[in-house]
Design brief:
The structure holds two protein chains of two kinds. Chain A has 28 helices and four strands. Chain A is elongated and about 155 Å long. Among the domains of chain A are: 273 residues, no CATH class; 91 residues. A two-stranded antiparallel sheet of chain A has the order 1-2. In chain A, strands 3-4 form a two-stranded antiparallel ribbon. By secondary structure, chain A is mainly α. The longest helix of chain B has 39 residues. In chain B, helix 5 runs antiparallel to helix 7 and helix 16 crosses helix 21. The radius of gyration of chain B is 22 Å and the shape is globular. Chain B has a two-stranded antiparallel sheet with strand order 1-2. By secondary structure, chain B is mainly alpha-helical. Chain B has a domain of 225 residues. The chains are: A mainly alpha, B mainly alpha. Chains A and B meet through strand 1, helix 5, helix 6 and helix 27 of A and helix 8, helix 14, helix 16, helix 17 and helix 18 of B.
Chain lengths: 724, 513
């Protein structure tokens, strides 16, 4: 099998699984998850084959694996679409394949496969648990199987298809297709339990917020296609003539080149998809979906796609960059990324929902990647994308395992608490050791715990890249964000796993089944080791012990390979200090929490509630955008324009017609036409009556008339002949 | 056999009329027979269209853009003839019509009263619509244009819902008001050129610089007046903002199948008029006023979407969505109009892509709008309400219906992978270099397209189940699945592999413009 055909099959297998489940297996639980697993498993296998071929191929970035067909006839030519694997897509494929497969396996346990049906369970609502009798006749409440089990596996297969499509494609149009299908899948999966009011709002919020970015991105596509006549990566990004042409041509917006304008349009797409400020609001609410979906969205697919887009188009975004003054798109990315990294990290400090903390940490970490691109640290951005996918998938699945354990506790104790609230947890390390150790690995990677975790290496790369670029504001913003990251991660670990249980449910929690914990272990291995492929040579002591393979492989994507010259130890010191300092502060602050309340709530006061309420951004948008938009639609468009003005004008024209008809009848028909008719009738009658009076039968009257007529005739004759 | 092969278009055109005449003698109480007969009869034009499609050569031969041409004497005194033919623009429209009619008739199986007259009117309607697409004579075009109105008027006024008389009257008066100018302009052109034949008019009318009838106005003024007469007539039919307010009323009050045909085919007549008549006959005027047309198209996109978002009546929401989607057709046509006389290869490509998008969008909207109206009807037949506030959480009780609705709504929303995206992308791509600002503004409409589609899905399917529907609704029947399945298959096929249709359109458009 040729490598190109292998690449084509990768997205098609999960798609096939989707259709098969929808059409044939939507009532069969086991068959549906087996179909999904086979699809994802084969896609994983083929991805590994392709990845293996890719890393053995010399000069892959210049001569990628590629094949294309004609798709849209346009005039005498046609738009081509096809597949394409270069170093960047190869590493993306690698982490997508692993995380997707782990999430699929985990989902079987998460949705309680093999458990009984709940007596009150309905489609559209999370399972409520079922009552069973044990051998002694005691009744127990246990978790019950998800009522829409097959639908979940169908949708998540479609999700995987869309991400694979986006990764293996060779052009921006099919990337956009995968991008949007993912939008649909996230919509359907965030609203998987659509019966809940909160889920139904979250699903719409996710779709529409990202759509703001998508419509701008579509304009970017149209502009790029119009100007270059193609959307193929190689033809645009590997072609200095095209890039410089775009950089030299002035766009309609004053002072901005076409390269700059298209770059910004694409970046807005990423801001929506990767949940950057100001379009970040959908991602925290996206946790309304089942936890495996959160892992899909936050790690394997959705948000990674946004970052993948800007990494992919970095040659266009940075065209004209000489290593010193940033291009406009880079400046935009640097500013928004760094701001988002800090902004989201501050919010995460004050959240109590275990998944919500992770959601804000995702936003913050994505901000890191975008900021890295902004300062030109291309390889570091890609590196952090990969390591983050592993440890964030791990953390989300781990939090799902925690919630599962807590829900078990809630079911068996009947306690009325939120099983996702960390304040009611505590001490879970003893109840759930595997979950604890793997979560710890993920948490330390997220904090950038030095040397042994993957997150350290990639985050350190970004910080040194920011330092090397001379953008000190961005550097220090990211450093403070890193400190906060370590702090809230340690807060999370301490509140969840350390100390003593703060509720009955936490005491009764127990470890999840192996089908859930094995994926955690595998992901934990990557969360630790994935960083070792990118250790820079200049690093003290360990540098050079392993080759910096990642830098060489992915770095070869850039046409101009910039020589890195940052040997300063400052960024390294900073990254050590903030990681260790943040972890220590977090542990010191929360290790003594005995009651279900946050010890920082009182001392921070108003600041805490500001953070707790996410700076009131949602409320602000409601007031400034959503309500005016509704007014524009309901009042201006519907009531005023359509009903009052346009229909009003039509009705007045119609009314005028009716009035004209009536008036014609009253003033013309009745008096003139009817009047004339009536007059004829009345006149004839009167004449008849008069003539009748002549025919009285008396000779004297006839003689008088005869004489009279004779006289008239005589006078006429006289005048006509004699005088005339 | 030769006769059949030589008169395929006439057969497609008049089979429905013949079937309607036969139905006159069928007993009116045998509703099952009447339905079955009408449905079977409407399959014949579809089969014949497929025959035509198979024999159609996508590459037009030089000098003769039309194929399967038939010509016979008609009103020889005024040089009007019975002249039919298809090209790559009209053939997809014919296919759309002959496909949607059987589906609409099948969807009408739930009509119980006066089935006989209903089915007869439906078949007559099909002839009227097909005639517009097939006519190559201006007078013939106009005759069919008006013929289609009558059955639709009765369908709305007799089988419609509560406010049907108002809606039917508004529909028929508005369209006929537009037709007045059209008729005058057609007569003027016919007399000036001495023929109503389109091929002849294509050659001679645009080049005409002297009128044979002295009416005391310069030729350019006369042409401009005729141009606007055409534009207004077609703009009402499309409908272009601000001539659109008949549409929500007519579509909402019409019976389900009537709405399917109204949105699916009748709106296309207006857009088709632009492509078949306005652009070729008035190239310089079209170019001159392209900006105004683009402005109205964008207004339709934005206000159509906002209007749809404001509705709480499910059917009215879908009706407004047609205004929004047809705005993209208008935008594509306007962009092409601005480039009509271009000679640069880049301009030619932009024009070509914009028109590809416009024609494909006509076809795609035909599928998705018919599908959406059908699905609204399915729900209405069960719940007897269209108020979105009355629903909620129905996905739990109607899983098949819910999935089908999401699929169709996504096609309407323009989700990549389904048909609507391809055409909208082509229009945006084609219009962007010429009408940059208009295209950018159209994105506002595209955003709100998402808003109103999701609003409908949210209020119908999601959220807590309204208890009044518990156990009272049944999922889609087999007949209903047969109606929607061909539409869904085509939506998917066109989204994944549009080339089979686009190739036909592309070659015709490249040849004609």
């Amino acid at each position: 099998m040729s490598v190109e055909l292998t690449i084509v099959l990768i997205p098609l297998l999960p798609l096939l699984a989707f259709f098969t489940i929808v059409l044939l297996a939507h009532r069969n639980h086991a068959l549906s998850h087996w179909l999904a697993l086979i699809g994802a498993g084969l896609a994983w296998l083929l991805s590994m084959l392709v990845f293996g071929r890719a890393i053995q191929t010399e000069e892959l970035s210049r001569h990628p694996f590629a094949a294309a067909i004609e798709w849209l006839p346009t005039g005498s030519t046609a738009l081509q679409i096809g597949v394409h694997i270069d170093p960047l897509s190869a590493v993306t494929l690698f982490f997508v394949a692993w995380t997707v497969l782990m999430i699929f396996i985990y989902s079987i346990g998460y949705h309680n496969y093999g458990q009984p049906k709940g007596e009150h369970d309905r489609p559209g609502l999370p399972p409520h648990g079922a009552e069973i009798q044990d051998a002694q006749g005691h009744a127990h409440r246990v978790p019950s199987i998800e009522p829409m089990y097959a639908r979940f596996f169908a949708l998540i297969s479609l999700f995987a298809f869309a991400m694979y499509l986006l990764v293996v494609t060779d052009n921006l149009l099919t990337l956009y297709m995968g991008w949007e299908i993912m939008g649909l899948c996230s919509y359907l999966l965030i609203g998987f339990w659509y019966g809940k009011e909160s889920a139904r709002n979250a699903m719409i919020k996710a779709f529409l917020t990202t759509r703001v970015g998508d419509v701008f991105m579509l304009l970017g596509l149209a502009a790029l296609y119009s100007l270059t006549g193609t959307l193929n990566y190689q033809a645009i990004l590997n072609n200095p003539a095209v890039l410089n042409g775009l950089a030299g041509a002035a766009s309609p917006l004053a002072g901005i080149s076409w390269a700059g304008l298209i770059g910004i349009l694409l970046i807005i797409g990423t801001i929506g998809k990767s949940a950057q400020f100001p379009l970040h609001i959908w991602l925290p609410d996206a946790m309304e979906g089942p936890t495996p979906v959160s892992a899909m969205i936050h790690a394997a697919t959705m948000v990674s796609a946004g970052v993948y887009l800007v990494i992919r188009f970095f040659p266009l975004l940075s065209v004209g960059w000489d290593g010193h003054s940033l291009t406009l798109p880079m400046l935009v990315m640097g500013t928004i990324g760094a701001f988002t990294a800090l902004f989201a990290a501050t919010i995460a400090v004050a959240q109590n929902d275990i998944k919500r903390v992770l959601a804000y940490s995702t936003i913050s970490q994505l901000g890191y990647m975008i900021a890295a691109l902004g300062v030109g640290a291309y390889v570091a951005a890609a590196f952090h994308l990969v390591t983050h996918a592993f440890f964030k998938a791990l953390l989300f699945l781990g939090s799902g395992s925690v919630i599962h354990g807590m829900e078990h506790g809630v079911l068996s104790t009947g306690e009325k608490i939120d099983p996702q609230n960390m304040l009611y947890m505590g001490g879970l390390r003893k109840k759930m050791p595997l979950t604890f150790w793997t979560f710890l690995a993920g948490g330390l990677a997220l904090s950038g715990f030095p040397l042994i975790t993957a997150g350290f290496w990639s985050k350190d790369e970004i910080l040194s890249g920011a330092y090397a670029s001379g953008q000190m504001l961005i550097f220090w913003t990211l450093a403070v964000a890193a400190l906060l990251t370590a702090f809230y991660t340690m807060r999370q670990i301490t509140l969840t796993f350390l100390g003593q249980p703060r509720s009955l449910s936490a005491e009764h929690a127990h470890e999840s089944r192996p089908v859930m914990t094995i994926p955690l272990v595998i992901l934990a291995l990557f969360a630790v080791t994935a960083g070792w492929v990118g250790i820079p040579e200049y690093f003290p002591l360990v540098g050079g012990a392993l080759p910096n393979w990642f830098e060489e492989f992915v770095g070869s994507m850039l046409l101009t390979h910039s020589e890195k010259s940052h040997h300063s130890l400052l960024p390294l010191t900073v990254s050590l200090v903030v990681a260790l300092g943040g972890l220590l502060l977090g542990w010191l602050t929360y290790r003594r929490a005995l009651k279900p309340e946050d010890p920082l709530e009182k001392p921070l006061g108003g600041v805490y509630s500001l953070l707790r309420n996410k700076y009131y951004v949602d409320e602000f948008y409601q007031l400034v955008f959503i309500r005016p938009a509704r007014w524009l639609a309901e009042t201006v468009t519907d009531r005023w324009l359509d009903r009052a003005i346009i229909d009003g004008a039509l009705h007045s024209i119609a009314g005028f017609g009716v009035w004209l008809g009536k008036s014609l009848r009253r003033w013309i028909d009745l008096p003139v036409i009817n009047g004339a008719g009536d007059l004829t009738a009345v006149g004839t009658r009167n004449l008849g009556a008069f003539l009748r009076s002549l025919q009285s039968g008396r000779v004297q009257v006839y003689a008088t008339v005869g004489l009279g007529l004779a006289a008239v005739v005589a006078i006429l004759i006289y005048f006509l002949w004699v005088i005339g | 056999m030769d006769f059949l092969a030589n008169h395929l278009l006439s057969l497609i055109l008049f089979t429905p009329t013949a079937a309607a005449l036969v139905m006159l003698i069928l007993p009116k109480e045998k509703t099952a027979l009447l339905r079955f007969f009408a449905f079977s009869a409407s399959l014949i034009p579809l089969a014949l269209t497929l025959v035509v499609w198979a024999g159609f050569d996508p590459q037009p031969s030089a000098g003769m853009p039309f194929q399967f041409v038939e010509k016979a004497e008609w009103y020889s005194a005024i040089q009007a003839s019975y002249h039919l033919g298809v090209d790559g623009i009209s053939l997809p429209m014919v296919l759309l019509t002959t496909l949607l009619t059987p589906l609409a008739i099948l969807a009408s199986y739930s009509i119980e009263e006066r089935v006989k007259s209903y089915m007869i009117l439906f078949l007559l309607l099909e002839t009227g619509m097909l005639g517009v697409f097939l006519a190559l004579d201006l007078l013939l075009f106009f005759v069919f244009w008006e013929v289609g109105l009558v059955p639709m008027y009765f369908l709305i006024a007799q089988w419609g819902s509560k406010n049907r008389n108002y809606a039917a009257l508004k529909f028929v008066l508005y369209t006929m008001g537009g037709s007045l100018g059209l008729l005058l302009a057609i007569q003027l052109m016919g007399v000036a050129v001495g023929s109503f034949d389109l091929l002849e008019l294509y050659q001679r009318w645009p080049a005409l610089n002297e009128l044979s009838v002295p009416i005391g106005l310069p030729v350019s003024t006369v042409k401009a007046i005729a141009f606007w007469a055409f534009v207004v007539a077609f703009a009402i039919k499309v409908p272009v903002w601000p001539f659109h307010t008949w549409l929500p009323d007519a579509h909402t009050e019409a019976p389900t199948a009537g709405s399917m045909i109204l949105a699916g085919v009748l709106l296309k007549l207006g857009a088709f008029g632009f492509l078949r008549l306005v652009l070729p006959l008035f190239p310089s005027e079209s170019q001159q006023y392209a900006g105004a047309l683009a402005f109205l198209g964008v207004a339709a996109i934005i206000f159509g979407a906002l209007g749809a978002w404001a509705q709480n009546d499910f059917k009215r929401l879908v009706a407004y969505s047609s205004i929004n989607h047809m705005g993209f057709v208008v935008l594509g046509i306007a962009a092409a109009a601005a480039l009509l006389n271009t000679t640069s290869p880049v301009g030619l490509l932009d024009k070509n892509i914009a028109l590809n998008g416009a024609v494909l969008q006509m076809f795609n909207h035909g599928l998705s709008a018919a599908g959406m109206f059908f699905l609204v009807g399915v729900l209405y037949e069960r719940a007897h309400t269209r108020d979105l506030n009355d629903f909620g959480g129905l996905y739990a009780v109607l899983p098949v219906y819910g999935s089908v609705l999401i699929f169709t709504a996504m096609a309407s929303l323009g989700l990549p992978g389904l048909n609507g995206f391809v055409s909208e992308f082509l229009v945006v791509r084609g219009a962007w270099p010429v009408m940059t600002l208009a295209t950018a503004l159209a994105m506002i409409g595209l955003f709100f397209t998402g808003a109103y589609i999701l609003k409908a899905l949210k209020m119908v399917l999601h959220g807590p189940l309204n208890p009044r529907w518990q156990g009272r609704l049944s999922d889609m029947s087999r007949r209903e699945m047969i109606v929607i399945a061909p539409l869904m298959i085509l939506m998917l096929v066109l989204g994944v592999w549009p080339a089979w249709l686009l190739d036909v359109i592309n070659r015709a458009v490249a040849f004609l413009f």
